[in-house]
Amino acid sequence: MSVKIENLFHIYNPGSPFETKALDDINLEIKAGEFVGLIGHTGSGKSTLTQHLNGLLKPSKGKIYINGEDITSKDIKLRDIRKKVGLVFQYPEHQLFEETVYKDIAFGPINLGLSEDEIAARIREAMDLVKLPFEELKDRSPFELSGGQKRRVAIAGVLAMKPEVLILDEPTAGLDPRGRDEILEQIKSLHQKVQNTVILVSHSMEDIARLVDRIIVMHKGKIALTGTSREVFKEVETLESIGLGIPQITYLMKMLKENNIQLREDILTIEEAKEEIMKWLRGRKNA
Ligand code: ADP
Ligand code: MG
């Protein structure tokens, strides 16, 4: 499913002393099956934007189309939007509330009006996707689980709705590096399997650069840059001026180049850097 955002503005507390313009004329198109990274400093408007995409927030002005359908129209039901668009909130584990893991993940599917068998199948499948052992955990209280497991339960609750558009708002915030890599891998492999549209929100370039098809950089409620990771990383000055760095390995490659070691500049991963440096070393040996 595609996502199209036209001239979207959002102002919190309009007309009060606390008025904040959180979104300032956002225009954006995401194709069906695209995997994009939405990145920006804290306060740049990422969460405000994502909450518009599942109807939780209404635009102050502007339109949003999901697969061509205007979800900002008055006649549209929230339930119909949420069938298509699944949003995993920032720190979603704060919203776990049922007495068992099973019931918590079942909440969304029950609201979709699915049969009991279908719900059971979806819970099992969603738990498998995020690598939670079904038998071991289904009857446990979500509150007794580790932080990482709670996060997975919350993500499974959204996956069990099988949304065609999946939005994850900083899904790895506060996790250790291993938990972080695992969750990102699981999101990526789900995308590869079902070709859903994925919007992954992060404030870390390192996290998303190697995963996504395209990066969208937000700054002060506007879109500052968009392009592939390699395209965006060439804009080092712009990125630094808005408080975002590029991955350390990309910096290293730039430094080498500045010292007249001619290497590609658009390196994203340590493996690519290694290959490029080895190539350069071999070239020197033969010279
Ligand atoms: P991000 O997710 O990129 O950190 P947010 O969308 O949370 O950014 O915030 C964008 C701006 O809107 C910030 O200035 C923030 O303080 C403000 N803001 C966010 N949520 C609210 C709210 N519920 N009420 C008032 N202002 C808000
Ligand atoms: Mg946020």
From TrEMBL:
<feature type="domain" description="ABC transporter">
    <location>
        <begin position="3"/>
        <end position="245"/>
    </location>
</feature>
<dbReference type="GO" id="GO:0005524">
    <property type="term" value="F:ATP binding"/>
</dbReference>
<dbReference type="InterPro" id="IPR005876">
    <property type="entry name" value="Co_trans_ATP-bd"/>
</dbReference>
<dbReference type="InterPro" id="IPR003593">
    <property type="entry name" value="AAA+_ATPase"/>
</dbReference>
<keyword id="KW-1278">Translocase</keyword>
<comment type="similarity">
    <text>Belongs to the ABC transporter superfamily. Energy-coupling factor EcfA family.</text>
</comment>
<dbReference type="InterPro" id="IPR015856">
    <property type="entry name" value="ABC_transpr_CbiO/EcfA_su"/>
</dbReference>
<protein>
    <recommendedName>
        <fullName>Energy-coupling factor transporter ATP-binding protein EcfA2</fullName>
        <ecNumber>7.-.-.-</ecNumber>
    </recommendedName>
</protein>
<dbReference type="GO" id="GO:0016887">
    <property type="term" value="F:ATP hydrolysis activity"/>
</dbReference>
<comment type="function">
    <text>ATP-binding (A) component of a common energy-coupling factor (ECF) ABC-transporter complex.</text>
</comment>
<keyword id="KW-0472">Membrane</keyword>
<dbReference type="GO" id="GO:0042626">
    <property type="term" value="F:ATPase-coupled transmembrane transporter activity"/>
</dbReference>
<dbReference type="InterPro" id="IPR030946">
    <property type="entry name" value="EcfA2"/>
</dbReference>
<comment type="subunit">
    <text>Forms a stable energy-coupling factor (ECF) transporter complex composed of 2 membrane-embedded substrate-binding proteins (S component), 2 ATP-binding proteins (A component) and 2 transmembrane proteins (T component).</text>
</comment>
<dbReference type="InterPro" id="IPR050095">
    <property type="entry name" value="ECF_ABC_transporter_ATP-bd"/>
</dbReference>
<keyword id="KW-1003">Cell membrane</keyword>
<dbReference type="GO" id="GO:0006824">
    <property type="term" value="P:cobalt ion transport"/>
</dbReference>
<dbReference type="Pfam" id="PF00005">
    <property type="entry name" value="ABC_tran"/>
</dbReference>
<dbReference type="InterPro" id="IPR017871">
    <property type="entry name" value="ABC_transporter-like_CS"/>
</dbReference>
<comment type="function">
    <text>Probably part of an ABC transporter complex. Responsible for energy coupling to the transport system.</text>
</comment>
<dbReference type="GO" id="GO:0043190">
    <property type="term" value="C:ATP-binding cassette (ABC) transporter complex"/>
</dbReference>
<keyword id="KW-0067">ATP-binding</keyword>
<keyword id="KW-0547">Nucleotide-binding</keyword>
<keyword id="KW-0813">Transport</keyword>
<dbReference type="InterPro" id="IPR027417">
    <property type="entry name" value="P-loop_NTPase"/>
</dbReference>
<dbReference type="InterPro" id="IPR003439">
    <property type="entry name" value="ABC_transporter-like_ATP-bd"/>
</dbReference>
